[in-house]
Write a sequence for this structure.
């Protein structure tokens, strides 16, 4: 059903705006995604927003028209509003002309079909939402099954993480759990746990990785705790030829992930 | 010389604070770098700040003591100040305890010794300072000679780019130029220009890259203009196994850069 909202103090506008804060996302089980590109990725992955806000000019693109038509066919809320109210919701001066409100989608570890993919990314205490979103985007690109977030990671449903994921949030399974729970689950089935470390001499291109590989990525500043490294089946290092001793976390994840899939894929 | 500044309205505090804006950085030829880790990377690369601000507690680490001693030995300005004033300078609630003011360091194309490294990264109209800094950090890790910024890229001396570079800003040569000037210079000597593109079927692991390789990276949203692709000696694609059609720009750069150096390096 399409309706129009023009008032800044409309309670729904306030409620949706509050989803920029983690506390309210948790309470409501909802999060925001912005922009036609990301909303289209979601739709192609079979995910429709619970509510869709758009400015008048946001409904002109054929993909936006198709999205709105499907929302209406399914009896979902479509709200036409002003650019100013979209600004208020998104907290940006130049808001996207489309904002979707989605139900969040954590899955429990038990729901993961680990043999459904040869590669899973496991991030521990990741703090930067841009890194988290970028890792999701890379996960999609390498055909990973999903992202398992261990310990206190930044919220994958934050606006910044969703934006950096470029829609991969909707194609990757997302699990949030504690390390102990992850480890117990991991050891209950097949899976090789691989970490990158400064404390090994094993080059990352030396071993043959076994599927399903669980690629473990540590916190941006600290890397992996040594107790976590000790649980890995394999520790490897990415060569560093310069002065620095580490890569950005999302970059290191991608370099590792491409090595793993390059060992397995048939070249074009 | 060490002196103390306690007043918020001190003209030097205002002047340094203004360096968070590009206009003033250009005017002054100065930029800010924050935190002991980055300032130490700079020092190890032979770069000392023109001025150093620190809180009392910022001078306790041995590396900070060494930096301050060297500043004083060379007659440079060391300013002891409060956490509040450091907050004002850095624009952050929890500022780093050390802030350095550095002279900027663009080099002209003609000053580049292209055969001094087998790999150079060339970025075109890059817009995100985090991506730019991350690419510098990757450049350091792969032993690149430097980063050539073509057309209207984000300022490499912005606080965000400096921070994301984790000090690699001080180890990588940085050139800013127009595409035409770059191309004229490139073709005046040896060098293979390699771009990634969605419009090719050539897998990025198929060709043998020839040194010096100039790895050309396009704008985050648009990729490379087709006229720029047409100038490349080689166009390759990174395999995308999921729904998305592209990687984050800094991630794509790293995946390419590691392939190029992996072809050349001796494994550990």
């Amino acid at each position: 059903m399409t309706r129009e909202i023009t008032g800044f103090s409309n309670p729904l506008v306030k409620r949706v705006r509050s989803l920029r804060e983690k506390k309210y996302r948790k309470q409501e089980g909802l999060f925001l995604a912005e922009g036609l590109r990301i909303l289209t990725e979601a739709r192609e992955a079979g995910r429709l927003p619970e509510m869709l806000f758009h400015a008048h000019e946001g409904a002109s693109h054929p993909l936006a028209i198709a999205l709105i038509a499907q929302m209406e066919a399914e009896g979902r809320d479509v709200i036409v509003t002003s650019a100013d109210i979209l600004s208020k919701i998104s907290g940006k001066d130049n808001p996207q002309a489309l904002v979707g409100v989605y139900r969040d989608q954590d899955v429990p570890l038990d729901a993961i079909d680990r043999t459904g993919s040869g590669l899973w990314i496991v991030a521990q205490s990741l703090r930067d939402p841009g890194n988290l979103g970028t890792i999701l985007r890379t996960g999609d690109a390498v055909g990973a099954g999903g992202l398992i977030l261990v310990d206190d990671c930044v919220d994958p449903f934050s606006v910044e993480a969703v934006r950096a994921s470029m829609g991969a949030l909707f194609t990757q399974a997302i699990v949030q759990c504690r390390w102990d729970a992850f480890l117990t689950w991991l050891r209950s089935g097949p899976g090789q746990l691989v970490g990158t470390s400064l404390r090994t001499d094993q080059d990352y291109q030396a071993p043959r990785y076994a599927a399903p590989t669980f690629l473990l990525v540590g916190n941006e500043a600290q890397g992996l705790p040594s107790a976590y490294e000790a649980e890995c089946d394999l520790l490897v290092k990415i060569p560093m030829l310069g002065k620095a001793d580490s890569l950005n976390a999302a970059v290191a994840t991608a370099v590792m992930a491409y090595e793993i899939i390059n060992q397995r894929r048939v070249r074009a």
Remarks:
- The mean pLDDT of chain A is 93.
- Residues 249-262 of chain A form the longest helix (14 residues).
